[in-house]
# Entry
Amino acid sequence: MILSQLNFIKECKKYSISLWQCPTFLFVLMGFIIILSILLSYFIASKYISDPLVTALLTLSIAFVLMILGYSIVNGFEKLAEANRLKTEFVNIVAHQLRTPLSAIRWSVGFLLGGKAAHLNSQQYEQIELIQSNVKRLIRLVDDLLDVSRVEQGRIVLKKEKIDLGKLAKEMIEQYSSYARASDISLKLKAEKKLPLISADSEKIKIVLQNLIDNAIRYSKKNGKVQIKLSKENDYIKCEVKDNGVGIPKNEQKYIFRKFFRSSNILRRQTRGTGLGLFITKAFINLHNGRIGFKSEENKGSVFWFELPIAPH
Ligand SMILES: Nc1ncnc2c1ncn2[C@@H]1O[C@H](COP(=O)(O)OP(=O)(O)OP(=O)(O)O)[C@@H](O)[C@H]1O
Ligand SMILES: [Mg+2]
# Structure
C-alpha cells in the first residue's frame, strides 16, 4: 500500500500535477478516512453505549454516510479530471493545427527576406522583418502549448545520450549574446574544468537553458549582469543562472512554477510572455530525475538553479 502510494506521488511530481488531481490518491485517502471513522465510531460506541445492537447500527449508519460522501467526492473529482483531460486534448489539437501553417509562413517570409528579395525597398523589408519576428513569437507560443499538453498527458519521451552541459551552455550563451547586447546586459559563463558528462535529452535541456537565460535577460534592468555557473555537487552537475534584475516579490514566490503565472512587478512592466516557460522547465528537470529551485529578492535579483545526475561510466 505504502509503495503504491509512493508511486503515485512520484508520478504526480514527474508530470507536475498536484496530488489532488490524482484519482488513485483520492481513492486511497477516502479509504483511509472511512476505515478510521468506522474504527473511531466503534471505539466510542463500545465505550459509552452498552447495547451492542445500537453500537452496530451506529457504526453501520456512519459507514453508510461516509460511503455516500466518499462516492460523491471521488465522482466529482473524476468529472474534474475528465474536463481537464478534454481541455488538454483541445489545446493539443489546436496547437498542432496552428503549427503547420505558421511554419509555412515562416518559411515564405524567410524566402522573401533572403537573396531573392533584392527588389524590396527598405520600408517593405522592415515590414516583412516585423512579420518574421511576430511569426517566431507565435511559433514559440504554439511550441510551449504543445509541450504543456505533452507534459500533462505524460507523453514526453526522453532521448537520452551522454552530454556535456558546459558545451550546451556555451552554445546557448552564443545564441542569446546579441539579445543580451541589444538590452545592454553582460552575459557570462563560469564553469569548473573537466565537468563529468550527464545523461540527458539535449533538446529538452536546451529548452531549460533557453528559458532560464531568456528570463534572466528579460527581467534585468539596463546594464545588468547575467552569469551562468556550472559546478559539480556530489553526484550532480549544478547549473545556476544569476541576474541582478527586478526579482520576484516574496509573497508571490510560491506560485513561480505554476502554469501561466506572471508576477505583479513583471505585469506592471507589461513585457511579453505567457508564464509557461518555468512550468515546462520544471517538468523537464523532473523527468530527468533532477532538482530545480530559486532564490530571489525584489529589486536585487534572482538565482535560478537546476541539478542533473552525472551519467554512469
Ligand atoms: N529571472 C527572473 N527575474 C524576475 N522574475 C522572474 C525571473 N524568472 C521568472 N520570473 C517570474 O516568473 C514568471 C514566470 O516565468 P516564465 O518563464 O514561466 O514565464 P514568462 O517569462 O512570463 O513567459 P514565457 O512563457 O514566454 O517564458 C515571470 O513572468 C516572472 O514574473
Ligand atoms: Mg520566461
